């Protein structure tokens, strides 16, 4: 038990000495005494910077502080309410992006038909057909398929990628 206590005391003493020594190094580099002393030389005793609390106050005076304009209230009342909203006119609703992709086209007995997919379902659509209860096929040309979004009666164009012959 005595041996453990002795080891702890030695470790504590060496830690305290290392801390004291490291603090002395910081003070020397801050005061501008750089370099090493020659053997046998002693460092000059350190002098206190300034004359106590008065020098600390002088350091505070050198720090610039923003000064408000004269006549401005120091303790102005601030509101945390959001600023009044500008008169915003409601935007006209627009149709969502087309959910369909063009897969191909064919000429059959009923006229021109296109194959469209919306991810999980595939449609064979002719001009005038209603798709999914929301879109109506208005016109089919080799270059594009014109669809009408029924709730807003807005036309949308789906490009086929084909060119005119």
Structure characteristics:
165 residues; alpha+beta; 4-stranded antiparallel beta sheet; 3-stranded antiparallel beta sheet; 2 helices; 24% strand; elongated
Describe this structure in words.
The longest helix has 30 residues, at 2-31. It is built from 2 helices and 7 strands; from the N terminus they run H-H-E-E-E-E-E-E-E. Strands 4-5-6-7 form a 4-stranded antiparallel β-sheet, with no helix packed on it. A 3-stranded antiparallel β-sheet has the order 1-2-3, with no helix packed on it. Strand 2 (111-117) and strand 3 (122-126) form a beta hairpin. It has a domain at 101-159. The protein has 165 residues and is of the alpha+beta class. The protein is elongated and about 105 Å long. The N and C termini lie far apart (102 Å).
Content of β-strand: 15-25%
Low-confidence stretches: none
Strand order, main sheet: write it out: 4-5-6-7
Q: Can you write the helix and strand succession as a string? A: HHEEEEEEE
Q: What's the gyration radius in Å?
A: 43 Å
Mean pLDDT rating:
79
Separation, N- and C-terminal Cα atoms: 102 Å
Q: Approximately how much helix is present in the residues?
A: 10-25%
Number of strands: 7
Overall geometry comes to elongated
Largest sheet: 4 strands, antiparallel
By secondary-structure content and strand pairing, the structural class works out as: alpha+beta
Summed up, the helix count is: 2
